[in-house]
């Protein structure tokens, strides 16, 4: 199931993506309730859906069955007609794993870690499909990083590697945009990784049953149509279960938390000559069984120093 959030006019809706069409779950539910009594109701956002997933996912299956019953009603609309929002715009935690592909360690000149390298990004950085990545006025070395992201489905504390998969809801895509000049000047990564718009996420969350083995997924990034990163998640140093278990020993993971698992080689910093994002660029991250996340790049101005629209920040 490929779940997504989107905006039609002023209204935020939940949907299921099928190729280039979105099934509007709220539209299906309105018609369904004219014919059926149900104690269930769709939540207003995907974070709430994840929190209530044990009850809501069977209800969604019921809605899908109703939508496909042959009544002739059309609940689908083209992706091009809506604004796709970040699947989860307000996670309690947005956690990232650094240096988690061996060849990426080599291109950065850093030793492979003996345990996961952990840092955080913040909700101000989150944007969705086709929203613009803004280059800050105080940086000229902004880079890209294609990453598989875990979406936590249940509260997790002190879970073993063997148990970890039970606590995962699904997977999405993140582009870990990074201002390298700030990242390495500071001695720690928070400022260089957490500028406004530096965490494009989406366009969907795919439930774990549909993804299957998360360690057999092709992952790639293109810049203006040119392949810059190309690998497979089988090359992760620390796998998904190891990451979830490791984090849960120190912090309680909660439904809707997002964990980006690291980037493969090919980042702009590691190239000769180095490649930095510039105004007018276009980035696309593709992960097998999940989809493609595309974002344009623009330079922020002194009057518009970067950031999400107020309407998006309030989701």
From TrEMBL:
Signal peptide: none annotated. It holds the Pfam family FAA_hydrolase. One of its GO terms (biological process) is carboxylic acid metabolic process. Residues 93-297 form the Fumarylacetoacetase-like C-terminal domain. Residues 296-315 are annotated as: Disordered. GO terms for molecular function: hydrolase activity; isomerase activity; metal ion binding. InterPro entries: FAH (IPR051121), Fumarylacetoacetase-like_C (IPR011234), Fumarylacetoacetase_C_sf (IPR036663). Keywords: Hydrolase, Metal-binding. PANTHER family: FUMARYLACETOACETATE HYDROLASE DOMAIN-CONTAINING PROTEIN 2A, FUMARYLACETOACETATE HYDROLASE DOMAIN-CONTAINING PROTEIN 2A-RELATED. Belongs to the FAH family. This is Fumarylacetoacetate hydrolase. It comes from Mesobacillus campisalis.
